[in-house]
């Protein structure tokens, strides 16, 4: 096999993996803290991309869209959490999944209603439109930018979770939500903020991904599937695990595309099933006291 | 009389449905929803694998039509067996985990099958689906009794299957076996503590669900005269789940109502309003958050209320 092609696919996998991570980490944070399975999580990814589409369509540059779209989606998510989703936390997981599935359908239909069913793409900013030589591979600047930005955000997120009071509350809440209430933490505000953060990160991932892969209303389903795979493979509630799993899943997909396009996705889901069957004792323990 | 409800349902469709083709679709999906209901409504297992079983049934029947040139009854039998076998294999792995992890396992298997359709293009036909069926006939062992060439005959075949499946599931859910499934739904740990081998019961529920969903998939292949790639996609799983929940989980007649409501809405709204699924999603949310009994629960509640009203009036 052509080694240049493999190298370029491996680089693609790195970028995609970091985007998967930004998407999936919100899913896992929300599940860890609120014990809430959100099958509408893919909708935030799509909404972010469409917010950017709307902004760039009104003459703003992609830079502005990249900065503003996540906040728009985070605001929408915070409102949705306050009005609707909060009612679902007490439901059994089965009902949470059905209810959020209904929400995912609703968002997909509304997006189609407003922007049409066709796919679209965003152009990379003018300053990042060229290519650069990485060893033997000629690689687009935009993809390099995505890797750098996403990696920087990953580090920032780690600092936020491990080195700030907010992060400490979040981690404590994931362990014993009833206990942090006793310690005087306003747990409802913590839920809202975490939910908005999760949505904002997914939205940012959506904007970043659009110039590379295009976007359509139905993308949400595919993205949700991948987020679920990453979260399960990485171990629910684990930051490091999610990062490693996201990179592994994206690399498997990218490399498999060279040989047989559909194989990558099949392998990824086989991996997910194997992990669930093999090491879910770790996952189960987290769940039992959540 | 376990037969009265499905027979009335089918007769009502024959009289009032705008076309036999719509009536057949409603009955076929009602069978699939019955299979889903046994797992979700009676055993409390939310499975995304319902589409797999339906799709496997459809592809199994389709492949037997294309390669072995069998007639419809043999194709349906193959679909039923294939559905049951796949359900048993996939189910035996999925039931090793509980709660979210169970759901996620079924999700993983459903996605695996969905992508496998495109991986094994020369078997499944990939995006084009499976085509080139011979003319559908009813018969066996070389003799042919009836051409399946009119909508009315197709509807009759689907209806007979539906009534049979409904009757069998009514008997099953009213038996000690059904009671045990409901015990597992209500509290699995307690069922284990009492001494029931709950794993075995869950596995059997999967197998039966596979039988029922498989035959529905087979009927779908016979009805269409082809198998679209969408039959094995997640959207089919979601559709069957939505029908089951909308109609009312834990009531077999609810499955028929769910299929009826879904497909009538789609039939009347889809041509003029592309985004009719918003209504569906809203209804689904309402059922989960407020009206747990679904359409059947609502209908029964309304009926009881009006009977009480009339009684008060007469007195």
Oligomer: heterodimer
Morphology of chain A: globular
Q: What is the overall silhouette of chain B?
A: globular
- Rounded radius of gyration of chain A (Å): 19 Å
Give structural notes.
The complex is a heterodimer of chains A (290) and B (315). With 290 residues, chain A is mainly alpha-helical. Chain A has helices at 3-34, 41-57, 62-83, 93-115, 141-163, 165-175, 177-182, 187-213, 219-234, 239-259, 261-278, 280-288; strands spanning 131-134, 137-140. Chain A is globular, with a radius of gyration of 19 Å. Chain A starts with a helix and ends with a helix. The model of chain B has no long low-confidence stretch (mean pLDDT 87). At the A-B interface, α4, α9, α11 and α12 of A face α5, α11 and α13 of B. Chain A: It is found in: Cell membrane.
Mind sketching the topology for me?
The complex is a heterodimer of chains A (290) and B (315).
Chain A: H1 3-34, H2 41-57, H3 62-83, H4 93-115, E1 131-134, E2 137-140, H5 141-163, H6 165-175, H7 177-182, H8 187-213, H9 219-234, H10 239-259, H11 261-278, H12 280-288
Chain B: H1 4-16, H2 20-42, H3 50-68, H4 72-94, H5 99-119, H6 121-124, E1 137-140, E2 143-147, H7 151-173, H8 176-186, H9 188-194, H10 198-224, H11 234-247, H12 252-269, H13 277-289, H14 294-314
Antiparallel strand pairs in B: 1-2
Helix pairs in contact in B: 1-7, 2-7, 2-10, 2-11, 2-12, 3-4, 3-10, 3-11, 4-5, 4-10, 7-10, 8-9, 8-10, 11-12, 12-14
Transmembrane segments (chain A): 18-40, 60-85, 97-121, 141-161, 181-204, 224-249, 256-278
GO molecular function, one term (chain A): transmembrane transporter activity
InterPro entries (chain A): ABC_transp_permease, BCAA_transport_permease
Features:
heterodimer; A: 290 residues; mainly alpha; two-stranded antiparallel ribbon; 12 helices; 3% strand; B: 315 residues; ABC transporter involved in vitamin B12 uptake, BtuC; two-stranded antiparallel sheet; 14 helices; 75% helix; globular
Brief summary:
Chain A: Its main location: membrane. The complex is a heterodimer of chains A (290) and B (315). By secondary structure, chain A is mainly alpha-helical.
């Amino acid at each position: 096999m052509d080694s240049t092609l493999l190298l370029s696919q491996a680089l693609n996998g790195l970028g995609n993996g970091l985007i998967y991570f930004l998407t999936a980490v919100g899913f896992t944070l929300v599940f860890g803290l609120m014990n809430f399975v959100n099958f509408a999580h893919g909708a935030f990814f799509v909404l972010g991309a469409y917010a950017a589409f709307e902004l760039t369509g009104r003459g703003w540059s992609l830079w502005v869209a990249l900065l503003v779209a996540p906040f728009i989606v985070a605001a929408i998510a915070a409102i949705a959490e306050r009005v609707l989703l909060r009612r679902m936390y007490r439901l059994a997981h089965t009902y949470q999944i059905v209810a959020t599935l209904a929400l995912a359908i609703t968002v997909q239909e509304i997006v189609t209603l407003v922007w049409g069913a066709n796919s679209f793409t965003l152009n990379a900013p003018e300053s990042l439109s060229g290519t650069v030589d990485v060893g033997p591979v000629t690689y687009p600047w935009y993809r390099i930018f995505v890797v750098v930005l996403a990696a920087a955000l990953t580090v920032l997120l780690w600092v936020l979770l491990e080195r700030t009071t907010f992060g400490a509350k979040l981690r404590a809440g994931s362990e014993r939500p009833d206990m942090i209430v006793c310690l005087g933490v306003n747990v409802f505000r913590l839920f809202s903020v975490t939910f908005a953060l999760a949505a904002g990160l997914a939205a940012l991932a959506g904007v970043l991904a659009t110039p590379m892969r295009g976007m359509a209303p139905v993308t949400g389903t595919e993205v949700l599937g991948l987020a679920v795979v990453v979260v399960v493979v990485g171990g629910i509630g684990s930051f490091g695990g999610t990062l490693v799993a996201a990179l592994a899943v994206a690399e498997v997909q990218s490399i498999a595309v060279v040989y047989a396009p559909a194989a990558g996705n099949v392998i990824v889901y086989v991996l997910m099933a194997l992990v669930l069957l093999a090491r879910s004792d770790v996952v189960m323990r987290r769940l039992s006291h959540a | 009389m376990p037969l009265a409800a499905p027979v009335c349902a089918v007769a009502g469709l024959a009289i009032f449905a705008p076309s036999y083709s719509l009536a057949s679709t409603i009955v076929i999906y009602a069978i699939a929803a019955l299979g889903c209901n046994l797992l979700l409504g009676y055993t409390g297992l939310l499975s995304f694998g319902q589409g797999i079983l339906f799709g496997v049934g459809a592809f199994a029947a389709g492949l037997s039509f294309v390669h072995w040139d069998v007639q419809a009854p043999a194709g349906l039998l193959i679909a039923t067996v294939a559905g049951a076998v796949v359900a048993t294999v996939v189910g035996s792995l999925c039931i090793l985990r509980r709660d979210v992890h169970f759901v996620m396992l079924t999700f993983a298997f459903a996605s695996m099958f969905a992508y496998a359709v495109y991986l094994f293009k020369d078997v499944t036909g990939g995006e084009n689906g499976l085509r080139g069926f011979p003319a559908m006939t009813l018969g066996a062992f070389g003799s042919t009794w009836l051409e399946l060439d009119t909508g009315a005959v197709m509807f009759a075949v689907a209806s007979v299957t539906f009534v049979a499946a409904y009757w069998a599931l009514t008997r099953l859910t009213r038996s000690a076996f059904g009671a045990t499934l409901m015990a597992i739904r209500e509290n699995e740990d307690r069922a284990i503590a009492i001494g029931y081998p709950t794993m075995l019961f869950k596995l059997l529920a999967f197998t039966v669900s596979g039988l029922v969903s498989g035959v529905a998939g087979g009927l779908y292949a016979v009805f269409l005269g082809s198998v679209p790639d969408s039959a094995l996609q997640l959207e089919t799983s979601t559709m069957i789940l939505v029908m089951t929940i909308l109609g009312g989980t834990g009531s077999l007649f609810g499955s028929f109502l769910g299929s009826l409501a879904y497909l009538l809405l789609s039939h009347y709204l889809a041509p003029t309003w592309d985004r009719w699924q918003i209504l569906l999603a809203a209804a689904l949310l309402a059922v989960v958050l407020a009206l747990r009994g679904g359409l059947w629960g609502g209908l029964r509640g309304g009926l009881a209320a009006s009977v009480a009203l009339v009684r008060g009036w007469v007195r």
